[in-house]
Amino acid sequence: MTKKVVLAFSGGLDTSVCVPMLQEEYGYDEVIPVVVDVGQPEDDMQEAYDRAEELELDLRVVDASEEFVEEMIYPSIQANGSYEGYPMGTSMARPVIARHCLRIAEEEGAEGLAHGCTGKGNDQLRFEAVWRRSDLEIIAPMREHNLTREWELEYCREHDIDVEATEEEPWSIDSNVWSRSVEGGELEDPATEPPEEVFEWTTSPDDAPDGGQTVEIEFEEGEPVAVDGEELAPVELVKHVNDVAGSHGVGRNDMMEDRVLGLKVREVYEHPAATTLLKAHRDLESLVFTRRQLKHKQGIETEWSDLAYAGLVDEPLFHDLQAYVDSSQEQVTGSVRVKLHKGSVRVVGRESPHALYEGGMVSFDEGSVTDSIDQTDAVGFSKYHGIQGRMRDWY
Ligand code: ARG
To answer: 203-351: what CATH class?
Structure first.
């Protein structure tokens, strides 16, 4: 019987090296590479197609871009998902990729599941949090052999795997429709400014158009549904905002990040749509939420994001937090205008049928909640306000 292993595949250096290793070192007869489309650029998909062809493998392609945006990214907007201040991308995509690999492994009667992650990063944890639900053998050749890039390049040459393109581009890149991350190479020195060539989704803010651009985003129950009056399906909407905001240099991020294992990493990100949509969404919440909701949700968001970052989306607490987030979004309908200008996003206007705000004139309308308010009512309140501080013997 053929011994099969499913490999989460991108066609990059690491997952290419995995193929002969799985055959030669781990005794698998058939490697089934799986590439999952989570809205990464067409070039990335092409890299997987080309490499699979070169290696004479029967590549399985799963189109999960809608699933990814609808089930992971839109909830992440509603939860204002961010880890140490950046919108999470890779961590949101991994569970989706992992689930499809597991499904295919089960359908194919495979005995193993493999990934090309190292033993230092987060992705090993995110894949395996899903995969260890099964009893299949889990293989991580990079981690098990402590492989270096140099060794991998040499190994490819020995196995006639063409790595020319990889040699020129020393970064490790991970992309999906929500975010592009770049690490490694000269970026490993946190003091080095990222060269302009690491950026692909964003115009340099210096070169972005002087006048900027105002964009209106419409939300329904916390989900973006239209841009400048045009209704767009989720994947299209995110791609469109990536293009527009990226052309204004919005969404670059250069940061030190704390991985789950405790190691720090210098990471460079591009996420124009995420920066824009999260800013607009947060702003809309500040119009429709009570201050207690606003304050409480911040704690929920931090916890939600920590679990999502770790890939623990099957943790029961994550489901509980998600239920809270869902319920909170009922009122988050309305539109927000943002100005994109040379790398920045500024909210310049917002409106909602559920606004907890009444402008000066409106408050004189009949039926208004604030109708019955008489300014002199505040006198009593102000007498109590700060009373304990006044009783303390400061002076
Ligand atoms: N640091 C990010 C994370 O753990 C991104 C890692 C993506 N990998 C890469 N090769 N750039 O979510």
So the answer is: alpha beta
